[in-house]
Specification:
InterPro entries: AB_hydrolase_fold
Number of strands: 4
Protein name: Alpha/beta hydrolase
Distance between the termini: 29 Å
Number of domains: 1
Strand content: 15-25%
Largest sheet: 2 strands, antiparallel
Low-confidence stretches: 1-10
Number of helices: 1
Shape: globular
Radius of gyration: 14 Å
Order of helices and strands: EEEEH
Strand order of the largest sheet: 1-2
Organism: Dactylonectria estremocensis
């Protein structure tokens, strides 16, 4: 799993348990990062790449930096 750093703070995906939800009969699935039952917000992230390849560690870092770290301290 990738490790991300921002502003001399390091966050790690090591402590986050992914939750894979199969989308019944479609052959597709959704990976939830974090506790979807306790969250008040979600980010639906499409990594691109024409979806012929799985996401790379850089995709998770990009999503983390752009949406999670960017919103820390932001008011809802």
């Amino acid at each position: 799993r990738p490790t991300v750093a921002r502003c001399n703070q390091t966050g790690s995906f090591e402590s986050i348990e992914p939750d894979i939800e199969n989308l019944g009969g479609t052959g597709a699935s959704v990976m939830w990062i974090g506790d979807r039952k306790e969250s008040s917000k979600i980010v639906l992230f499409f990594h691109g790449g024409r979806y012929i390849a799985p996401p790379l560690p850089g995709h998770f870092t990009w999503c983390w930096e752009a949406y999670v770290n960017a919103s820390l301290g932001a008011k809802a």
